[in-house]
## 1
Amino acid sequence: MTNLFHSFYWKISLVFLLLLIALGAAQVLITYNSSMQFVRQADQKLNLDLAKNMAGEFEAELEDGLDISRIKSSIHDMMVVNPRIEIYILDSSGKILAYFIDPPGEVKQDSVSLGPVRDFLQHPQSDLIMGEDPRNPSLTKPISVAPLDIGEPQNGYVYIILGGEQYDSALRMLENSYYLQTSIKIFGVILLVTGIAGLIIFAFLTRRLRKMTGIISKFDQGDLDQRVPVNSDDEIGRLAKSFNSMADTLQENMKELKKTDQLRRELIANVSHDLRSPLASIQGYLETILLKESTLSHEKRRKYLEIILKNTFGLRQLVEELFELSKLDTKQVEPEVEPFSISDLIQDVALKFEQQADDKGIQIVAENASGLPLVKGDIALIERVLSNLIENSIQYSEEGGIIRLELKQEGAAVQVQVKDTGAGISEDDLPHIFDRFYRAEKSRSRSEEGTGLGLAIAKKIMELHGKEIQAQNRNGQGAVFTFELDRAN
Ligand code: ADP
């Protein structure tokens, strides 16, 4: 039962049926009232002159003063003809002097209000004038009234209640009326047909909702591929569309979350691995130094200490880069965008690495591009990108190599390229070099240096600027890294 009322279908059906029943009841009530009104009006119209005629009859009897018993017998004859009336003789103030009711009954009031009496006499052709019923003070009934000379200074009235008590059984009369019964039957049939049609239409409309609920609950149980078919552009169609787009977003987010989770696992694995090797090396050399303290030559001790220092430096760099990447990931670093001269910046960065390149016999050529517009960006972060690229170029180039820093205006942007004449990047490695911790096997075996985070950091910084960074091979002559910065207004 509770389930029944939880169903939307039954809720709207119930409201609909209740409304239909209320409509039916209102219709019966209105029909009953208007029928009553009609009967009363007809009664009054037909008996408009009844009181007048009666007064004419009485006046002969009243010539010698008001003699109730004499009047009674003549009234009796009239009431035989029309038993549905109650006759009252009123004085000029409305006080009841005599009444004639058949069968006799209790009269609860000893006077009636004269308002309707005057209305009747002044506007005899009015639609319907209802007067007080002395037997039922709370009810008003159609009347017929005429003045009556009762031998007093002022006239009295003949006051006739039409229909009398019999109106109270009018409902029964109407119940038996063919017209009323037929119209109630027709209305009943209309209600029944409307009710059934309504229930069928609601069932049809809610079927789509039920279908949708089924699909959504499957989605809820984990089947994220479930989508609601959209067959219309109405509210339900739009709801289905909204659900589908929400499901798409949710699925995308889930994929993203899974990917992030996977990345996080890889990151932990990589970090542990990259921490373990230098730590093991440091531990090994320290143990050797301690064990062979007395026998170790000065040169060897120095060499071991240098290796330890180099590993410590590598560890520090790894931790710093991890920290930097995590700050970029969590958006703790917001680029402070300002106009600056990229041409000046590459000169500065080239100068910074000149000594390091020189030590390896490599030349850095920074193009002196005059006339280029200022660019927009966070100067410190862009410097970091350039440093990472130049560091890599130095690292992966042999003696005699040349690193060129080139600038070119490209529409509303300035293109920056770092070209080297080093080993280049294999086609297999190319799609992955911007991934965290990715190091091409070649470079891994050749050098223990490098964390595999430098390019990931560069890519993240460019993403924060809304830009991309790309790597290409220069047909066996080394690698080229390219990115763009928007010109400042
Ligand atoms: P790493 O610290 O190993 O240099 P990066 O993220 O900076 O890490 O670079 C990732 C990998 O991309 C490197 O291991 C290397 O294999 C490759 N790479 C980057 N720059 C160059 C370059 N200029 N020439 C050749 N290979 C490069």
## 2
Amino acid sequence: MEFLIKNSHTLTNQKTECLVITIDSGKKQSDIVNEIDELTHGMISQLIKSGDISGELGKTTLLYPCIAGFTQKLLLVGCGKCKEFDFSKAKKVIQNVVKELVAKNIKSITWDLLTVNTAYSSIIAKQLPQIVNDITYHFDLFKTEKAPKLNLAKVNLIYGDKEQTQSISCNLQQGKIIADAILATKTLANMPSNICNAQYLAEQGKLLDKTYESLKTTCLGEKELAKLNMNAYLAVGRGSQNESIMTVIEYNGAKDKKAQPIVLVGKGLTFDSGGLSIKPAASMDEMKYDMCGAATVYGVMQAVAELNLPINVVGVMAGCENMPDGNAYRPGDILTTMSGTTVEVINTDAEGRLVLCDTLTYVERFNPKAVIDIATLTGACIVALGHHYTGVMGNDEKLVTQLVHASNKADDKAWALPMDNDFQDQIKSTCADIVNAGGRDGGTITAACFLSRFTQKYHWAHLDIAGTAWKSGANKGATGRPVAMLIQYLLDQ
Ligand code: BES
Ligand code: MN
Ligand code: ZN
């Protein structure tokens, strides 16, 4: 789908299939509406007078004006009071308009959406492609009967202010790249574990390398991981028939090729059964989403390449599968991590931190400016923040603040949790340096405390996306979070 900004004060003479016009709920309509009203011999004002249209927020009315010289369809949509029109109201309007366009199979539109309240034009332009993708995306790869397709190919948005057109257009194009990245993340994350294993993640990484000149992908299998002493990572995958593979995607966009990169590390448990500390059957299917951190890295790296960002970024997908087996690691085992720190395994279901700790040690070699890990790490995070906020922790207050700020800007909410030394006592071990599970209380924070033992050499933040990466129930599926927040963070750099 193509999104375009047209510098224009009027919708007349637009050669599209359908004109989409926003109607104010107050007495006064915009010049754009008045002009169309005149052209249609007062059709709109008559409909307002008769009460058939009211400008009620999100309400749509499709008209087929049979008037000589007027070839377009007219889709009227209520926007409430223009002056109160903000981003959340725009979201509702966009959702309803797109639903109508899908139902009527409309292929091209011209819309005055960005002119309703210019204070919000930039943010609406940036979010528009994301909202459109969000309601039209269906994971129907494995369905015999596919969902109805959106045939909308062209969205023209008019904007009156010539000076600002350039920057609005830039926002729109960025929004399109972000929307596509979210889509890529969703599709990868929704793949079932019998198809999407660590090998599959590696292949997707290689495909990115093939598509983008600026990306370089390297894969490390079990042999390589063993050579690096990544024993905690390997222990988790030992019960699985699928090989553990760490996929590294490098992007060099900075003028100074040696500039310190921002490193993203994604938990890529393609299935988490819990291992010998096996999970209950209910909802175990959802543990195919335990690779959403890796899928996030995948989407963000695609966007980084698309945006040609002038920075260096490294994305790591830590692919692995946690299964029970005669060869699986056990509770009570003591593992020597790549860093030398020893870990007593209390619970084989606390596997994410074991895979991540070695990966976090591995990335020291990139001399990172900052490291951000993204992981569906703890059920406790859902208890703490529900499905609304991603949890943010780290060893660098500035980095944490920047991430929360980016999350607000991107409408991809995140909330900082405390992580002071008081919590570290919970991961003391009697026979090793630390245990891998710190008990029920403050589980999200003690998991972060565990990771903090491996991130002392750089600025680090940890995103717990257990509550935000996917939805359960009737709308089961990956959300593509926190791709938008991370791209915003990188754009801000
Ligand atoms: N992948 C899970 C966390 C999870 C569970 C995310 C449910 C979303 C929904 C993780 O590997 C896990 O099992 N964590 C344990 C840790 C515990 C054993 C210390 C948990 O949260 O119960
Ligand atoms: Mn687990
Ligand atoms: Zn897990």
